Amino acid sequence: METNSADNLARLYGELFVLLQQEEKLRQETERKLEKAKAVIDPRKQFNNWLKTNSGQTWKRKQFELQGSMCAACKTSLRFEDAVVHHVLPLKDFGSAANKPENFKLLHPGCNLAIGTKIVDF
How is the chain split into domains, by residue range? Predict the structure, then answer.
């Protein structure tokens, strides 16, 4: 009888070990999928990817002309190569809703850093 109990206990421990390994694999797979999902829906990455597209570059060129080659913040001359896109409504507070061209202005890099995530009326 004791041998049977010992065998059953050994078998149960073996099954438990297998289940724990499977659970760990599932946990790791879930973490990988969550990281992948975060990368897909990350508003900053969405914005950066859009800005690299023809559509993003076309918008930037048109906005540059619309602003008269001037920084929207300090109203001084701005070179196209130096212009950075500023989110009027901050990306950190508004997420994907802030990723709309009507929410963008072109600024000097320093002006953009000085404003940061404050909401400024241009």
Answer: 1-39, 41-113
Adjacent-strand bridge partners of 104: 87
41-113 under CATH 3.90.1570, yes or no: no
Please give the DSSP secondary-structure letter assigned to residue 118.
-
Query: Are the C-beta atoms of 47 and 89 separated by less than 8 Å?
Result: no
Contact 88, 113 (CB under 8 A): no
Could you read off the pLDDT of 72-99 as tens digits, one per residue?
999 999 999 999 999 999 999 999 999 9
pTM reported for the whole predicted model: 0.68
CA distance 47 to 98: 9
